[in-house]
Every structure is written in C-alpha cells, then in structure tokens.
Amino acid sequence: MPRSVVTGGAGFLPSHLCDRLLAEGHEVVALDNFLTGSSDNIAHLKDNPKFTFIEQDVCQPYELDGDVDFVFHMASPASPVDFTTKAIEIMMVNSEGTHQSLKLALAKSAVFLMASTSEVYGDPLVHPQPEEYWGNVNPIGIRGVYDESKRFSEALIMAYRRFKGVDTKIFRIFNTYGPRMRLDDGRVVPNFIGQALRGDNITVYGTGTQTRSFCYVADLVDGIYRLSQAPKEVSGPINLGNPTERTMLEFAQEIKRLTESESAIVYEELKTADDPKQRRPDNTKAREILGWEPKVSLEDGLRATIEYFKGKV
Ligand code: NAD
Ligand code: UDP
C-alpha cells in the first residue's frame, strides 16, 4: 500500500487530496499547524485506520517513522488577505517548509510534489499563460511574499532534482474553489457566495474587468493525482486550472443568479496592489502529458459550493 505525506492536510485543497489518496488505497499522514486550516476538514477521517494526523509546523525539522512513497507539499496560506496578515509565515512555509519537505522526500526516496501557483506569473503580460512564461512579478509589492516565495520553492525543488536526484513534480494551481473553503478567508468565491446568501452587497473590487478562471476542487485533485503517477521524467511545472474565464463583474452576476439573491452589486477599491488583470491557464501540457482536462462546469461546481456554504452562513 503506498504511503503519502500531505503537508497542510487540514486545509481546503489538501483535505480533498487526502480523501482522493485514501480512495486510491494510500495510507495518508497529514501534517498541519492549523494556521489557516481546520480540524473540521478532516473530522470525517478520524476513525479511518489508514489516516494519521500530526499537528506539526512543517518549517520546523521533523522526522517520520516508516516508508514514505509520496510527499505532497501543500501547506501555505493562499488568500490575498493573508498576504498582509501572515506575510512572514507565507515566506517561511514556502522556503523552510519546502526545504524540510524536500529533505523528507530525499531521506525516504519518495516522489515530491509541490502546490505552486498561477501567481508565479504575477500580473501576466502573456495571455493565456503557458508554463514557459517567466511572469511579471513585483518582488517588493504586497503580493511579493506569496509570489516570490512560491518562485523560490520552484527553484529549490529544481535544485533538489538536478543535484540530489529527487523525483520532483511541480504543479501550478489556478484559482480553485469548492466545499471546505473558509467562508471568511477573503477570496472572491466565499466572499461573493456569503454576501449573496446573506443578502449583503456583493463587493466587486476595482473596475470588475479583471478576469479569473475558476476550477472545481475535484478536477484539480484529479490532476494532482495523475501527476503523481507520471514517470520521473515528468517534472513540470504543469498548469492545473479551468480555462473558463470570467470578469469579476460577470462572476458576481453569475453568483447572484445561482443563489437567487436580491443583493446589490457594488464597487470597492482594490484591496491589494498588483492585482492581476487577467488570468487563464494554457492547459496544453496537462492535456498532452497527463490526459487531464477539467470536467465540472462552472455552474455545477458553483451550485455544489453554494449548497455547502448554505449550511455555514
Ligand atoms: P488552505 O489555507 O485551506 O490550506 C493550507 C493549509 O496549510 C492550512 O491547513 C494551513 O493550516 C496549513 N499550513 C500553513 N502553514 C503551515 C505550516 N508552517 N505547517 C503546517 N501546516 C501549515 O489553502 P488552500 O487554498 O487549500 O491551498 C493549499 C495549497 O494550494 C497552498 O500551497 C496554496 O498556495 C496552493 N494554491 C491554492 C490555490 C487555490 O485556488 N485554492 C491556488 C494556487 C495555489
Ligand atoms: N475580488 C473582488 N471582490 C471580493 C474579493 C475579491 O472583486 O470580495 C477580486 C480580487 O480583487 C481579484 C479577484 O476577485 O481581482 C480574485 O481574488 P481572490 O482573492 O479570490 O484571488 P486572487 O486570484 O487574486 O489570488
């Protein structure tokens, strides 16, 4: 039975990854310090004999007994709100945390996979974004703590691949949503759905012409799983995202329609400088190398997410 370590295992995406790995017959060890995660996300796994949870800051040195076949380094705050409140923690988990996780993979001869991000492309000047694009990042801007530390992670991972021989795989996640997102994490999906369900104003930041492309969590996790099964030659980075692109104004209108909300759509100032004006993945590599394509439509994914949030507002 393969054994997988998932850092950040009590988080939104990582907890879904734990579910998928268990369904594939893996034994799973999840590590988390609850910086942005919640034990609620893994409560359903507590009696599963194949699942172990360890409260651990993955920036600190740690050891694990037994064999490990895969290390999925998923730990990191991800909401732009956290770029101001958890700036240092973000830098640390994407530097020292990545280093500790790589050392674990090296010691156990495990495959190492890392959750990188479309934010490595910054405010992109190429559209849609292929993996070959080096990006347009402001290193000293408010978003720099996230963007640059993920870029540092990618460089460190490639060094471990080139000079230590670790089988490493980088995937760049584009905006992904679904059940278990935190209603108050500040990202656009929980914000708009929460506001619409409560009947509050739906807050579009800036002009609302900026775009994002939203991927449903089950599709994303399927892409990560496929990548884990790829041979050593496949190192990525590989974009994982849904190319269905919306302006934030269109997105607000869509959520208002799906929730049948009476909320008004209002404009507020942008909350972070350097907010990317457009973002859409070029999925050619994922399609050709992994045979992966997102399957869940935006409407179906949003309906499932709205149902989840109905129980939380
Ligand atoms: P999340 O905040 O729900 O999950 C991250 C988890 O990491 C949390 O449970 C948190 O407590 C944990 N964590 C943070 N620092 C830690 C540390 N030092 N030690 C142990 N655990 C720690 O966020 P998410 O949206 O599920 O994102 C998961 C990963 O995917 C992150 O690496 C993020 O950068 C990446 N990502 C997500 C998206 C997205 O759209 N959701 C997009 C791009 C990249
Ligand atoms: N946004 C918005 N209203 C909100 C929250 C976010 O208009 O209440 C915008 C934000 O400015 C950005 C986009 O939605 O242009 C996506 O923001 P999010 O925080 O979800 O993630 P990002 O893609 O910026 O990392």
Short key terms for the protein model shown above:
single chain, 313 residues, alpha/beta, Rossmann fold, 7-stranded parallel sheet, two-stranded parallel ribbon, 10 helices, 36% helix, globular, binds nicotinamide-adenine-dinucleotide, binds uridine-5'-diphosphate, decarboxylase, UDP-glucuronate decarboxylase activity, NAD, transmembrane helix, golgi apparatus
CATH topology: Rossmann fold
- Count of helical stretches: 10
Q: Which hetero ligands occur in this complex? A: nicotinamide-adenine-dinucleotide, uridine-5'-diphosphate
Could you tell me the strand content as a percent range? 15-25%
The CATH architecture comes to 3-Layer(aba) Sandwich
Principal-axes geometry comes out as: globular
Give the neighbour order of strands across the main sheet: 3-2-1-4-5-6-11
What radius of gyration results from the CA coordinates? Answer: 19 Å
Overall mean pLDDT score? 97
- Given helix and strand content, the structural type is alpha/beta
Full CATH superfamily name: NAD(P)-binding Rossmann-like Domain
Distance between the termini: 40 Å
Q: How many domains, in number, for the residues?
A: 1
CATH domain class name: Alpha Beta
In terms of per-residue confidence, which ranges show pLDDT below 50 for 5 or more consecutive residues? Answer: none
- Counted beta strands: 13
Characterise the protein shown here.
The model has no long low-confidence stretch (mean pLDDT 97). α1 (12-23) links the parallel β1 (3-7) and β2. The chain has one domain (3-178, 215-242, 280-295): Rossmann fold. The chain has 313 residues and is an alpha/beta fold. The protein has helices at 12-23, 82-85, 87-93, 96-108, 144-164, 188-198, 217-228, 248-259, 284-290, 298-310; strands at residues 3-7, 27-32, 51-55, 70-73, 111-117, 168-173, 176-177, 202-205, 211-213, 215-216, 238-240, 245-247, 265-268. The protein is globular, with a radius of gyration of 19 Å. Helices cover 36% and strands 17% of the residues. It has a seven-stranded parallel sheet, sandwiched between helices. α3 (87-93) runs parallel beside α5, α6 (188-198) crosses α8 and α8 packs across α10 (298-310). It is built from ten helices and 13 strands. The relative contact order is 0.14. Uridine-5'-diphosphate binds at residues 80, 175, 187-188, 191, 203-206, 210, 212, 248, 270, 275. Nicotinamide-adenine-dinucleotide binds at residues 7-8, 10-14, 31-37, 57-59, 74-78, 93, 97, 115, 117, 173, 175-176.
